[in-house]
Specification:
The protein is α+β, with helices and mostly antiparallel strands. The chain has a single domain, classed as Alpha-Beta Plaits, CATH 3.30.70.100. It is about 30% helix and about 40% strand. It has three helices and seven strands. The longest helix is centred in the N-terminal third of the chain and has 16 residues. About 10% of the residues are buried.
Length: about 110
């Protein structure tokens, strides 16, 4: 699994209502992104952005392609930073499980 952290510098922090409105407006874009498991919208004093969870590095790279920074700049007026991480272990409290590389894992005693 791949986690991508996108950070968009801006200030001041928009009110929650504005952040929600923007997130809902752009959510349809992300419903069809190949391999995207989830996107979490971020809103804070340091800026906005998102945490993206992809199934594979190839699908993440396909989304965050060479055109992506310019597309984001056209939307937000600034270029975001992008940091990509491998994610081998997930604690999923909603599902009540821990997974390693997507498979349920036994915890050490």
């Amino acid at each position: 699994m791949i986690i991508a952290l996108v950070q968009i510098p801006r200030s001041p922090k928009p009110p929650a209502e504005a952040a929600i409105k923007g997130g809902l407006a752009s959510a349809p874009i992300y419903r069809e992104v190949k391999g995207l498991i989830s996107k979490h919208y971020l809103n804070g004093e340091a800026g906005g952005g998102g945490v993206y969870m992809f199934d594979t590095a190839e699908n993440a790279q396909a989304w965050f392609n060479d055109e992506w920074p310019a597309w984001m700049e056209s939307r937000f007026g600034t270029r975001p930073t992008l940091t990509i991480y491998d994610c081998h272990v997930v604690v999923d409290n909603v599902a009540g499980e821990v997974r390693v590389d997507g498979e349920p894992a036994e915890l050490p005693a």
